[in-house]
Amino acid sequence: MAGRVGVILVGAGTSRRMEGIDKVFAPLRGRPLLDCTLGVLASVPEVAAGVIVISEQGFAQGQEVLTRRGWTVGWNLCIGGARRQDSVRLGLEKLSNVEWVIIHDVARPCIDQDTIYRGLEAAKETGAAVAAVPVTDTIKSVDEEHRVVDTLDRSTLWAVQTPQVFRRDLLEAAFADSNDDATDEATLLERMGHTIKVFQGDYGNIKVTTPQDLAMAEAILASRVTPEVLPSA
């Protein structure tokens, strides 16, 4: 896949549970969170290009991150849409000359290269693969009155993460096929009847949604044995 892989980093949300902090630029180990996430994806040799989908308010600050770290070649910014899937579609339109697309949340800064490579390998089977981890808690289905309806068999349940990897033509077909709401792009392909491969994610690959998650991400990144090698400015 060398030279044929593009990345869409999705970070155009409102950060409504962050108590007034834009999590995309929240400080994490002395750097903006975006910088941490981008650093891992940009260091994957197979990645030829990338688009960061960001809010209009954060556009200038996002450009500063790219410029400061020297990622202005091959990486672009675009303003997101009303929904996640709209943001991903806009990002896809900005990617050119790639056959495979990695979609990842900016808010998951603890991603590592091993997970990315597992995703690229898994996607070869069906053209669509998602990171996930087996559920460890007991999961109960409840009704509108918060009464337990059923206890689900957790041996069949996986919590889905990003990255998610797709063949570009499949992703384009999914957007053309449906404009209904979906929490991730894999759901759009499922509605088309396409098979999605699940690959092993990482329990440390958390999504930052609250200020408390920032502290957890700090601890996870600090525990990594090999520090990330940053490109020279």
Description:
With 233 residues, the chain is of the alpha/beta class. It has one domain (5-223): Spore Coat Polysaccharide Biosynthesis Protein SpsA, Chain A (Alpha-Beta Complex). Helix content is 33%, strand content 25%. It is built from seven helices and eleven strands. The protein has helices at 33-42, 59-69, 84-94, 113-126, 168-177, 185-191, 211-223; strands spanning 5-11, 27-28, 31-32, 47-54, 75-79, 100-105, 128-134, 140-142, 148-151, 158-167, 197-200. The strands form three sheets. A seven-stranded mixed beta sheet has the order 5-4-1-6-10-7-11, sandwiched between helices. A two-stranded antiparallel ribbon has the order 2-3. A hairpin with a 5-residue loop joins β8 (140-142) and β9. α5 (168-177) packs across α6 (185-191). The longest helix has 14 residues, at 113-126. It starts with a strand and ends in a 10-residue tail after the last helix.
